[in-house]
Design brief:
The chain is an all-alpha fold and 221 residues long. The chain has helices at residues 3-27, 30-37, 41-48, 51-79, 86-101, 108-118, 123-126, 128-147, 153-172, 176-180, 190-207. The chain is built from eleven helices and no strands.
Length: 221
Amino acid sequence: MSANSDKTRRRILAAAERLFAARGRDGATMRGIAAAAAVPIALVSYHFGSKGELYRAIFAHRYGPLTEERFARLRAVEGAPVHGDAVERLVRAFLEPLAHMRSRRGARHFAVLLAREASDPDEASRGILADYLDPTARAYLQALGRALPGRSAADIAWGYQFVIGAIVLVIADTHRLTRLSGGAARAGDVDAAIERLGRFAAAGFRAMARRAPANRGRPRA
């Protein structure tokens, strides 16, 4: 691929990422993406084919480095001497690369796009989360299982789901947290979010093992 062709391809990807994040997959159009990239619409189709293929190409472009960083952090956590809260360190290792994308130049729109895709009821039909996110998710679920002996696979999976729901709100939110807290908490403060969510999630995973006994029979008067 020539340098000019590669530059055009990157420009189209950046424009598509921006519009998909702002308008959603269905709201963005190939014509609008071409206009934002300042290229003929035929070039968008030439490089990426359909809108669906272009949408998938964004995840292929972005998620490779993110996956590598997550696996590297996982190896570092599991290879380190045992100290502190292993669960909290695993949660932070999983979430930090994604959360910090929001503050990195050129990746902020992808963080929002990822939040959109993760909360879309139709995501399974596209297979993007299955292809790009599930491999690291499964690795971390297994690591959490090793760090939480005796917890059921269901508890680990539910805990993971709760954490993902929280981080999706963190990376997608722009003003609501700041508004609700009266400025005490800032929506864009990623470090504060990760520090608190790590502790919150670790406590939640531990609490799931402490179930109250079932209330059998009728209460006495």
